[in-house]
Amino acid sequence: TWSAVPAGPPDPILGVTEAFKADKDPRKINLGVGAYRDENGKPYVLGSVKKAEEILTASKPDKEYLPITGLPEFTKKAALLAYGAESAPLNSGSIAVTQSISGTGALRIGGAFLARHYPHSKVVYLPVPSWGNHTPIFRDSGLEVRGYRYFDKGTVGLDFVGLKADLQAAPEHSIVLLHACAHNPTGVDPTQEQWAQISDIVKEKKLMPFFDMAYQGFASGSTDRDAFAVRHFVSQGHQIALAQSFAKNMGLYGERVGAFSLITSDAAEKARVDSQLKIVIRPMYSNPPLHGAQIANTILGDKLLYSQWEGEVKGMADRIISMREKLYGTLTHDLKTPGEWGHIKSQIGMFSFTGLTSAQTKALAEKAHIYMTADGRISMAGLNTSNIEYFAQSVDAAVRG
Ligand code: LMR
């Protein structure tokens, strides 16, 4: 029956983990998937998460189903975290929000909802490059995926001229996907002034802005600062769509905690959108998992835990920044590796887009047991004081050929 099913390629990101696991060399390093590792290279369960779990266990919760759109207390707090207490649509009760299976699930709910109910367009513009999963998520949601220029290989920075020209040239009302902060995979974000200009173009061209905010707090260490673009757009009257993930900023990867929200015109419109979100979600997975949402809800709802969590997010962001400095220093000053490496320091968030070619990344895997995605993206969180020298030396050898 299945003889005509062709073998598919491994996932460009999660496939790297499979290759890493199969490698038995003790020096091996996994810089593929964006999952935080502590100074010892181990997964990190935040202290605030452990405490929240203790509080939860002590409260002897049951295992009942959540509503289709998830834990209402959690989604309320998730929206507050993203939009901020001053948000006009939040305060007027016109934001429709649902819990989601982390960021991917939020994007998929949003994609499916827009494909079915957005009356003006079926076209979504993604930055080039974008997170590898964006294209299949939106394509499988029933949208046509196109690209807008984002990254300039020459300057290893933002191609702002290309970005503006492509958004100006997009058909009116197209959907445009924007990374709210810590752009994945490049680590290159627009400045606040550039965001203001993007907002103006989006308004002029009546584009539908869809933000993916997978790294709130992780870019700068401040959840408010990282929400700048989202809040600026909302203050300019844009009715944005927003995907949120708590995988990175709370380290809740496998718990799959996220939220999708959509700004509507008023409470009555919100109620209608809510009803249709349920109709999109129910046949997909019925209702979302309970435990992770309860953890996030406990942290966001408790003053002490909240400030502990903020400190822990900043701690993760700071360790990554220190690894950027160390890697830059080792390549540039100690090893004098050919090339310009300043972008390793200036890029933001979990990833560095190194500029290594796919041949070099292949050589690093085969010769040095170092794994990264083929586009040369490395998860900075996989580096620590014990492996960074070995990594830098291996990069130096790969670059010199
Ligand atoms: C990544 O880009 O590595 C993360 O967002 C994890 C994933 O699911 O791809």
TrEMBL record:
PROSITE patterns registered for this protein in UniProt: AA_TRANSFER_CLASS_1 (PS00105)
EC number(s) given by UniProt: 2.6.1.1
Keywords in alphabetical order: Aminotransferase, Pyridoxal phosphate, Transferase
Cofactor: pyridoxal 5'-phosphate
One GO MF term attached to the UniProt entry: L-aspartate:2-oxoglutarate aminotransferase activity
Pfam assignment, any one: Aminotran_1_2
Chain segments annotated as transmembrane: none
Broad enzyme group: transferase
Extra remark: In eukaryotes there are cytoplasmic, mitochondrial and chloroplastic isozymes.
Subunit structure and binding partners: Homodimer.
The protein, known as: Aspartate aminotransferase
Source organism per UniProt: Collybia nuda
